[in-house]
Amino acid sequence: MSALSELYTEIALCQQCEIAKYRNKVVPGEGAEDADIMFIGEAPGWHEDQQGRPFVGPAGKYLDELLASIGLRREQVYIANVIKCRPHGNRDPLPMEIQNCRQWLERQIEIIRPKMIVARGRYSMTMFFPGKSISKIHGTAQKRDNVIYYAMYHPAAALHQQSLRRTIEEDMLKIPSLLARAETIQEEQQPQQLTMF
Q: pTM score, two decimals?
């Protein structure tokens, strides 16, 4: 059994939050255990709660299109959420729920060791870019501890606000060059900082 499979078993048994009582299925995450890129959203929605898989509703279909635009399929990346259970009535995750689930996400990151973490949406962004506003930093990257952190709008934002669609698509297209540039920086042993641009 892989390290991720073992972790999924632990997550499925988690009862730390009240929302565990209402979930249909826990949604730990899915994708390649050795993925270079890890996409982290906010919380499972109705479709995800039914299937136990992240990003399978309309936002997931859009994410698949975005991945295709940079020559990737979902099996080649890793997709997870900040919290692993659907908040009752699709409400926003509570701070306590985010805190309780943080250990699971941190362990996923440790196992996968991605080169790049794409924070999608405000709760994911707050975890990696505290105190920043998504409208100001989307499409920008920082490098810390050998990992590129990249901020993007959540795919669902484009479904509610068509004007964001082009922005999201343009931000997605920056990912391959960011990854390529990061590898060059590492090889040259330069200071481990990717400047905002």
A: 0.90
Asked if residue 192 belongs to a domain, the reply is no
* CATH number of the domain where residue 101 is located: 3.40.470.10
7 within a domain of the structure (yes/no): yes
- Environment class of 174 (CB within 10 Å of its CB; exposed 0-12, middle 13-18, buried 19+): middle
Give the structural domain span for 60: 3-186
Has residue 190 got a pLDDT over 60?
Answer: no
Note the pLDDT tens digit of each residue in 143-162: 988 899 999 998 888 888 88
Rounded to whole angstroms, the Cα distance separating 134 from 131 reads 10
d(CA 119, CA 122): 8
**CA–CA gap between residue 85 and residue 82 (Å, rounded):** 9
pLDDT at site 177 = 93
Q: Tell me how far apart the alpha carbons of residues 181 and 197 are, in angstroms, rounded to a whole number.
A: 13
